[in-house]
Predict the 3D structure of the following.
Amino acid sequence: MASMLMNPIRSCSVNALAVNLIFNYFLSVQTKSKKTLTRPGVKNIVLVEGVRTPFLLSGTTYVSALFFVYSLYVYGIVGLLNRTGIPKDAVDYIIYGTVIQEVKTSNVAREAALGAGFSDKIPAHTVTMACISSNQAMTSSVGLIAAGQCDAVVAGGVEFMSDVPIRHSRKMRKTMLSLNKAKTLGQRLSLIGSIRLAHLSPELPAVAEFSTAETMGHSADRLAAAFGVSRVEQDEFALRSHTLAKKAQDEGLLQDVISFKVPGRDIVSKDNGIRPSSMEQMAKLKPAFVKPHGTVTAANSSFLTDGASAVLIMSEEKALAMGYKPKAYLRDFVYVSQDPKDQLLLGPTYATPKVLERAGLSMSDIDVFEFHEAFAGQIMANLKAMDSDWFAQTYMGRKSKVGTPAMEKFNLWGGSLSLGHPFGATGCRLATTVANRLKKEGGQYGLIAACAAGGQGHAMVIEAYPQ
């Protein structure tokens, strides 16, 4: 900018002193706007690379391969190893997030690490925090590195909704366990005779909040109504998400997606849930949760998705020593929690101002926003809450609103509504997308935010690594 202003200044024969003053002023502005969040005595932690398998609609290509969930994660972690070339013995720890856990592989991180060829001497553990499970995996990795316990950690998440564990009813389980302990034929026959038809009804994984017995979609509908978010607004935002995702996919911007061959099927190389429609087509859909007058539909909700993600997180010192050029610094982060009934999906509203305060930034400082899109109504309600002084003062104990993200910076490569939302994997997708967008767009700061079941939320500031 300074050099552009210099030409007209020279042509007007302004004296050299004035020129120097103007030039130095613009230099100082530029330096200030590009300040780093590096702090003396605080270890710099970097995101070196992030990848993900294609996010696919549940019940499509992945289901035919009869994966265990850990197999899908193996593909993700092997893709990260291939992308980075990091030796397996250079990784100190592995953390993965998941929500619907397969009983046989409850510590899916450990089983997948062994399946990917890591040494059995490398520890691994699994975290679960609903839709922010891989966010927790990343921040737990940051904590290990900051504490000096590790130099390189692989974090990620996985969800395989095509094959969720289904249990027998509680009465049937009790009977079967008793049968296993029965010592005589008489005892066994007595227990078998006690089985009734109702005992055979299966228990599906809960899609409702345990504390409220309300589905998340129902909560999203009530939240949209509370903030006056119309059906048209929700459909418009969903259409925006799909349109931007299709554009990003066509332009090759979704470079975190890795291709692989699903056993017995063709090579999978792209997300298959991106489907731009029209407002007219979307308007034909009936409410999915609150019937008949609700506004949340299948078209403006995220869909059940299979997929895995993985990121390599390292201390900056170790990354540079190994010859890596990191993508971004992982800076301040916060977790929040609020009422799981009326404020179930407002995590971004509560987390965003807190993480900005920790980082000493304002909304205007952020160049890239990536918010998790659980429902279009949830996103719009959060944006309205963030733009409300009344809500900030009444519910958050704040003097004023934090403000809303500029839409020209917001989820420009699509979001969970279009790319898909494997519960345990979305957080790493958000972080990797921020890092890639900062590099592509030349921005300095990015912010991710997400809501989660239980009324929880997460936000993190990410800083671009110097080009």
Summary: Residues 231-250 form the longest helix (20 residues).
